[in-house]
Amino acid sequence: MAGTPGRSRGLVLGGGGITGIAWETGLLAGLLEHGVDLTSADVVVGTSAGSVVGAQLTSGTTLADLYAEQVPDVLDAPTPPSFGLPVVAGAGLAVLRARGDVEKLGRHLGAWAVRRTRRGSTPPLEERLQVIGERLPSTDWPTAADLRIAVVDATTGTRRVLDRDAGVPLLDAVAASCAVPGVYPPVPIDGRPHVDGGAHSAVNADLARDCDLVVAVAPIAKGLGPMQNPYQQLEGHPHLVVRPDDASRTAIGKNVLDLAARGASARAGHAQAAAVVDQVRELWG
Known about the structure:
Elements: E1 9-13, H1 17-33, E2 43-47, H2 49-57, H3 63-70, H4 85-98, H5 102-118, H6 125-135, E3 146-153, E4 159-162, H7 170-177, E5 187-189, E6 192-196, E7 213-217, H8 230-233, E8 239-242, H9 246-252, H10 262-284
Parallel strand pairs: 1-2, 1-7, 2-3, 7-8
Antiparallel strand pairs: 3-4, 3-6, 5-6
Helix pairs in contact: 1-2, 1-3, 1-10, 2-7, 4-5, 6-7, 9-10
């Protein structure tokens, strides 16, 4: 269905680590160069990596500048955080214990994330907030766009949607949405620990279903355990899901937290834009 003037449009930005930030930025910059500006969205939904990109896009910073920051190769990149056996095993156990209930999954992942942090297995919260703050051009909520950030309450397992009316600082909202359970520390919001919105869904595309049409940019389009994927979340609704092609998956590699793969991921997303621009233009208008 072609885009029509006057219709509300939603841009959904999914999770995918450091390489996901780079790939999404490259793709969006490439689409803009081909004449399709997804930053004109009425609603921007961000999960994890997508929350960073969403906050950057709605800050007023140009896509050209954001892309320029991602492109250079990081030759002296530090050793990336590991999705090693303890993290994989902990996540796998949480999936088994959830028994198909996504909120139970959120509770188990949340409780495990809290325990990992108490044992000192994650970086200090202050250090993590500093890292996230350095990625944001502004720590003020945007007023020109409806930015919605997905997080999960680690105590209840429920998904929360944070926006400019939630009374939560933007820095805290983005840091919580990026708090990968077992890897990074939960972020306290309203007195309770909160973790990555990806503990509910890697994309959370349903948060834009109130828009007339939706484009979801999803570095990770699969659901873990009881999580829904974006195709399920947008079923029956005018939408398009863009995920990495073969070249982009190769550039992203196996560890989405590897800073050394950032430049290649950004360039791959930028190149992929040429292959998807016609589909995006047909829907977006």
